[in-house]
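To make this tangible, we now present a fold written out as C-alpha cells:
***
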Amino acid sequence: MADLPGTARAFLILGILVLSTSSSAASFDWHVRRGHHNMLPKNLNKDRSLSSTPSAGNNGSFCFEDKCRCTSKQADCSRNNGTLTFIPTFKPNYTTPRISELDFSFNDLLSIPDAEFMKNATNMTSLNLSHNKLAYIAPGAFSSLKKLTKLILDNNHLRYQDVAAIFPAPRLNKLQLISAGLGPGPIPDNLFKKDSAPRLFQLRLDNNRLISLNMSTLTPLKRLEILTADNCGLYDSTVTSVAMPKLVKLSLKSNAMYDLPQTCDSHNGVSLFPRLRKLLFGGTMLKSLPGKYCLPALTMLDLSDTRINRFTTDMFNHGKFPRLTRLSLFNNRRIQQIEAFAFRHPKLKFIALMYSYLSLKNVHDLAFASCPLIYLQVSHSRLGSDSPEKFSKIMASVPKLQVLMIGSSEIRIITKDMFNHMPKLRRLHLYQNMLTELPDGVFDQLTNLTELDLSDNELTTIGPSTFNPQTQSGLQKLDLSGNKFRCDCSILWFKEWYLSHSELFEPGYDGYFCDNDPRYPLSKLMLREQVCYFSQFTYKIIISVISMFFIVFTSATAILPYRWHIRLLMYEAFRGSGDARYKRLREGRFDYDVFVSYAHEDLPWIQQQLLSHLESGLNLKLCIHQRDFMVGENIVDNIVHCVQSSKKVLMVFSRAFVASQWCQFELNYCLRHVMDYDDALIVTCIDDMTSLKATSAMMAVLKITTYIQWDCSPQAAASFWGRIQLALGDILNDDVSG
C-alpha cells in the first residue's frame, strides 16, 4: 500500500474501513480500479486510516542525499532498506520551510536504542515507522516528541513494553499498531495510565494476537473515540465491555464471535456506548441478532461476511437500533431467505448487499417495505432467472429510492415496468450484465435520473428513441463503454451524440469500440449518410436479388451454348418406345413423306442426288421449299405447315446450312417437333463437318445423333443411300404406308 500515491492510498483505506472483511475490502478495491468506486454513499465513513500519512513520494525534491524527498511539510525517507540508519536533519529553505510529517517505513530499523535517535524528529507531528522489523523501543525514546499527534507502527515485532515506551505522549491522538506483533495475550492492565495519552482518540490494534479484550484497560484513554481490533483472535467470552462514553466507532471484524459485544449495563440497563455511531462486525460467526442491544446513537452497522442465512421480520427494528440509517451486508453468500419487513425501520436509508449473490426467489416482495430507503446496493447478485415482474414488485415498496446498484447480476432483459415505482431515482448502475438491447424509452419515466452506468453489457446499438429528449438532457453521466457496438448505419445517431456530448459520456476502461472491427474506436467510424438511406433489411433484399440475378445470368450464359446438348441428352435418356410416333403415322393425314431442310446453295445436290434416289427410286414425295412452299404465305407458316404435313424430317448439313438463319430456324423447330412426337431426325452431311464451326444446335445434333456422311465415291454413295433407306423404314413399310 505504501507504493500507492497518497491520494489513491487514502481513498483505498477509506473503502476498507467501510467494508467489513478482507474479502469485501478486496472487492471494493477491484471496483475502485474498475471505476465503480462510488458505489457507497458519501460520508459513510469519514475517519481515515493513519496509513494515509502523506508521503512526498516522487513528487518532491531530494532533501537528504538520494534517500529522502521533501515537499513543503512532508519528508519521505522510506524504502532505504537498511542504508539509512538515522533520522536526518531537514534544514528549512524556500521549498521546505518546515518539515512536520516523516515517512521512515521500510528501512529495516530493528530498534530505537535511546532518545538520541529521535533528536531530529522533535518537530514532527506525524511519524510512520511501519514495516521496519522493529523489535525494541527504549523507554523514553519518544520523550522529546512533544508535538507528535500521529504514530504508525504497523508490521513490526513489538511487545507491550515497547508500546509503553511511547508514553507519555501529551499530544498523540492517533496510534496505529496493525500487525505490530503484539501478544499472544491481552493488553496489560497498566499499559495505559492516566496521563499516558490524554488526547488519544483513535487506537488501531488489528491483526495482533490479543486473544482477549478487556475494555477496562482502555478506560485511562478518556478521549478514545475509535477502537479497532479486527482479526485479533477474540471470542464472545474473551471480550469484556465497560462504559466508554466517548466511543464513536468500534470495529471487531474477523473474530470468532457469535454475538455483538455487551452493550447494556447489567445493573441499570443503560448503554455502555451511548455515543457509538459505527459498529463493524463483519467476518464473524454471527448468525442472528437475538439479544437486547443498547446502542441509542448507532447509525451504521456492518455485518458483512457473517453466517446470517435468514433475515427475519423486524430483524433491525427501531427498538434495537433506534437511529440506524446505514446497513452493510456485503459478501453474505449464505442468505436463504429475506422475509417480509426484514428491514423495517423508520430511519434506515442505506442498505448494501453487494457480493451476496442474491436471487429474488429468496426475497419477499415486501422485504424492503416500511423503511425510507434511498440507497440500495445489490450488485453481484444472480438475477438472470428472475422475472422483471418479481423485480418490480420488490421495488414497489421503496418509492423514495435515489440510488440503485445492480451491476454484474446476470440481468438479460429490462422493461419499463421494472422502474415504474422509483420516480426519485437519480443514479442507476447496470454495468457488467448481459443486456443485448434496450427497449425504447425504458428509462424515460425516471425523470430525475442523472447518472446511468450500462458499461460492459452486450448492447449493439443505441438509437434516437432509446432515450427521449428529456432523459437525454437530464443525464449528467452516462457510461456505455465496453459494449459490443455494431458499427453500421444503426449506430450513426449514437456516434454523433457521443461526439457532440463528450462531457456526458464516461470513458470507461474498455472504451467505445466497434465489435465487428475492434481495431477502430467508435469515434473513428467513417460511414457516409448516403449509404444509410435504405434500411439494413432493404439492403439485404437488394443484395440478395442482385446476387440471385448474377448467379442465374452467369449460369444461363454458361449453359446457353449447350442448351441443345442438354435437351437432346435428356430426350434420348427419357425417350419412349415410339408409340406416339406410330400413332401419328397411322392416324395422321400427310401431304409429304419427307420434309427436307437444306440451304439454297445446296439445291443442285438436292435435285441431282436426293430427288432422283428418293422420289424416282423409292417413290417418296419430298417437300422441297423452292418447289412446294405456297406462294404468298409467310415463310414461318410454310415451314410449320410443311413439317406438320410430313411423315419424317431430313436435315442436309453443309457449310451453307451453318451460315443460313432460316436453316437454323428450321433445325430448332424440327428438333422440337421430333421431340414432341417421340421421333428422330434423319441427319445427312454433304460437307466435312469436322472442319466447320457449326452452331450449338448443329453440334448438339452431331454429337448425340448418328448422322450419315455423303461421299461421292461409288461405294460410299451406295452405302449412303442404303442407310437413308433404313432410316426411312417407318414410311417405306407397307403396313404403315398403307
About this structure: Residues 1-53, 734-738 have pLDDT under 50 and may be disordered. The two ends are 119 Å apart (CA to CA). Residues 536-559 form the longest helix (24 residues). The CA atoms of residues 153 and 715 lie 129 Å apart.
